[in-house]
Specification:
Blueprint (H helix, E strand, L loop, with lengths): L7 E4 L3 H13 L6 E5 L3 E3 L4 H5 L9 E3 H8 L2 E4 L2 E5 L4 E4 L4 E3 L2 E4 L7 H4 L6 E3 L3 H10 L5 E5 L3 H11 L9 E5 L11 H13 L3 E3 L4 E3 L2 E4 L2 E2 L5 E4 L8 H5 L9 E3 L11 E3 L4 E3 L8 H19 L15 E5 L5 E5 L2 E5 H19 L2
Helix pairs in contact: 1-3, 1-9
Length: 365
């Protein structure tokens, strides 16, 4: 690519694109014109949502002001979702039907919710994706005395603890965590699983290790109905949006944009993708916020290289073990690092410090 490309599009206001905007603020815009297309003016950091539920944070403490960062970087902010792409003609389509042309585009839109596809339809059903919509619906919801959280990953566990300790909605609700047959935290160590299981018991959260679905207005398993519930929260991980594959981008079997070690599309060299919308083809990288955060500065350097006419060289290489800090929403937290597990208030303080440091580094810009 020639130096100073005319038109660069950042699509999605995820963790990686926040790092790109920060780079452009610090080191200057690497192109003549750049735009950010995102449905929201702010990025809500999902790791702080359980703390908000439990009254440990205010509603807007865990957000990054994308509009302010874009303005500082000299980037035009466009509000709306991406609904289509033609990578040959080099344009994307917005939810309002607008067609936006680009010379280079980077996607960090996140995945899509899978609640209705995997469970079925029900007016009580809340999907944690997108996280902003989840927060809005929770604020508008009536008091829920009995809540089911479906999903046994880290997100489901933290949401279950957060809802159990929810502040400002009357008495403490009864919470049931339905993990599915894969069980509780299947990708973490047995030591972590034991600590989480013990904490669920201590807090009075019921654990159900079977698959569930919505049928005839009930949340049911093979053994029968789990009802009654006032609210059903789905924390089932990311699904792929339809538009990348439909538009002709190379995707993996699940529909995520296939990228190389530099986060570059394997089919279109002027397309980059990071986070939950992307799938690395050189190695397995889980769809997890920790990887999106760590890959952000790498993406920023690769975009700058390409926009100056060079080949991208930086590669995000996940560590052999990732640090996970699971809030139990009662002033404590559980640490996971490979086979090692720990629990205590000091872990919660560590999580608080790391989360707030990530937020404040962008607030300072």
């Amino acid at each position: 690519m020639s130096e100073k490309q005319n038109n660069v599009m950042l699509v999605g206001g995820g963790h990686a694109h926040v790092a790109v905007l920060a780079d452009w603020i610090t080191n200057g815009l690497p192109c003549k014109r750049a735009s950010l297309l995102t449905p929201y003016r702010h990025l809500r950091y999902s790791g702080m949502v359980p703390g908000w539920l439990a009254g440990q944070y205010g509603r807007d403490q865990g957000v990054v002001d994308l509009a302010a960062l874009a303005e500082r970087a000299g980037v035009q902010l466009l509000l709306g979702p991406c609904t289509g792409i033609d990578p040959e003609a080099r344009w994307i389509k917005t939810g309002g039907g607008q067609v936006l042309e680009y010379d280079l585009v980077s996607f960090d839109t996140g995945g899509v919710g899978r609640a209705q596809d995997l469970l079925g339809k029900d007016p009580r059903l809340l999907d944690v994706r997108p996280i902003d919509r989840f927060v809005e619906r929770l604020e508008q919801s009536e008091e829920a005395g009995r809540i089911a959280v479906v999903g046994g990953g880290a997100g489901g566990v933290e949401i279950a603890f957060g809802l159990r300790n929810r502040q400002g909605k009357g008495s403490q609700p009864e919470v049931t965590l339905v993990t599915g047959r894969d069980g509780l935290l299947p990708n973490l160590s047995s030591a972590v699983r034991r600590k989480v299981a013990n904490e669920l018991i201590r807090q009075g959260i019921t654990l159900v290790v079977v698959d569930a679905r919505l049928e005839g207005g009930d949340l049911v398993t093979e053994a029968g109905s789990l009802e009654p519930f006032d609210m059903i929260v789905a924390a089932l991980g990311s699904g792929a949006p339809d538009w990348p594959g439909a538009g002709g981008l190379a995707t993996d079997a699940q529909g995520f944009i296939s990228v190389d070690q530099h986060q570059r599309s394997i089919s279109h060299p002027n397309v980059f993708a990071t986070g939950d919308v992307a799938a690395r083809q050189d190695r397995a990288v889980a769809h997890s916020g920790v990887h999106a955060v760590m890959a952000g500065p790498i993406l920023a350097q690769n975009l700058r290289a390409v926009l100056s006419g060079k080949e991208p060289r930086r590669v995000y290489r996940p560590r052999r073990a990732s640090l996970y800090l699971l809030s139990t929403s009662d002033g404590s937290a559980i640490l996971s690092y490979g086979p090692f597990a720990a629990q205590g208030r000091w872990v919660a303080k560590l999580k608080h410090a790391i989360d707030n440091r990530w937020i404040s580094q962008y607030a300072s810009l």
